[in-house]
Amino acid sequence: MKKIGFLSFGHWTPSPQSQTRSASDVLLQSIDLAVAAEELGADGAYFRVHHFANQLASPFPLLAAVGARTSRIEIGTGVIDMRYENPLYMAEDAGSADLISGGRLQLGISRGSPEQVVDGFRYFGYAPGEGQDASDMARQHTQVLLEVLKGEGFAEPNPRPMFPNPPGLLRIEPHSPGLRDRIWWGAGTRATAEWTAEQGMNLMSSTLLSEDTGVPFHQLQAEQVERYRKAWADAGHQRDGRVSVSRSIFPVVNDLDRAYFGAAGGQDQVGYLDGGKARFGKTYAGELEQLVKDLAEDEAIAAADTLLLTIPNQLGVDYCAHVLDVVVNQVAPELGWR
After folding, report:
1. Of 114, 48, 112, 116, nearest to 84 (Cα)?
2. Which residues have a Cβ under 8 Å from the Cβ of 91 and sit 6 or more positions away?
3. In whole angstroms, what is the distance from residue 244 CA to residue 106 CA?
4. Would you tell me how many other CB atoms lie within 10 Å of the CB of residue 209?
5. Domains in the chain: how many in total?
6. What region holds the Luciferase-like domain (predicted)?
7. Which residues lie across from 315 on neighbouring strands?
8. pLDDT tens, 280-295?
9. Mean pLDDT across the chain
10. Residue 105 in 3-state DSSP?
11. Domain that holds residue 16
12. Which residues fall within 8 angstroms of residue 51, CB to CB, at 6 or more apart?
């Protein structure tokens, strides 16, 4: 059994071919798609965060709105770039969104990917300290976030406050119990997956890894998952760590599917990311029988408990809901995921 959700990058463009021509279109359609996903039996609605781009950025207003309009599905991010974040303010926003949703927030974060501008985090007021790089800063922000999400007091109260304080040091409010256990790290390498387990975070693995050993992507990612689970066990955590993988999966069941994705299937790609070699996973597209066969051979999907489907949000809510419906209610049962 697997949880199956969607992951939207939230693109928009003024092109007449796009169903999302503005930020307003993307935000409102994201809410509608989450509602539709819940109705058709999917398990999650996740959103990518990019700055300085025609894509979804500030996630918490959207997550709160989705949480208010739904009642069952998980809501989350995949992922928030921690180079840009004030971890205390982020803890307040995340706590609020989680409480509105009734504890359904699954917060994916990471050290960030290549962005639209050079060192964009500096425009947000953040810069690495002496002897640090941007990755160190992202992990430092993350450690602060994880600590304050525990809900323990750390701030000295004012002896003459406007309103009475509870006794002792004060914590970030609103606090949402259990949210600390629902933080995920977007790991791009096998070593980072081990670090993620040591920190007690869930593992979120995408459709690319910023390393390449020559084996197919799904096998490299399966090794990443295996190393995460071993590191988790070695750390002695008192709960099970969760693992999600992302995939582009497009069942071809009608002429419109065939027009959009009839020739979209392919092979892994190898390229360069941040100056290093990277392996990109293939797109799965085809008739149901072949699609089921191909997906059954994906070792990383088999190892994960959660599958996030990257959706072409610019094709609109109805088409994306159609893709989710076919995967959840036709493909998944054939593979034993339902």
Report:
1. 112
2. 145, 148, 149, 172
3. 11
4. 26
5. 1
6. 9-258
7. none
8. 889 999 999 999 999 9
9. 95
10. strand
11. 3-334
12. 57, 81, 84, 115, 116, 117, 120, 124
Block residue for tokens 């739904």: 70
- Nearest in space to 287 (alpha carbons), one of 230, 334, 321: 334
Cα(249)–Cα(164) distance, integer angstroms: 55
Residue pair 194/227 in contact by the 8 Å Cβ criterion: yes
Q: What global pTM score does this model have?
A: 0.96
pLDDT at 2: 96
Helix (H, G, I), strand (E, B) or coil at 77: strand
* Cα angle 312, 138, 140; round to 5: 145
DSSP state of 310: E
Amino acid at 117: V
* 6: helix, strand or coil: strand
Query: What is the rounded CA–CA span in Å between residue 226 and residue 237?
Result: 16
- The rounded percent of the chain whose pLDDT value lies above 70 is 99
Q: Which pair of tokens denotes residue 71?
A: 């009642």
Per-residue pLDDT for 271 more than 90?
Answer: no
Q: What spatial distance separates the first Cα and last Cα of the chain, rounded to whole Å? A: 6
Q: What is the pLDDT of residues 130-145, one digit of tens each?
A: 999 999 999 999 999 9
CATH code where residue 140 lies: 3.20.20.30
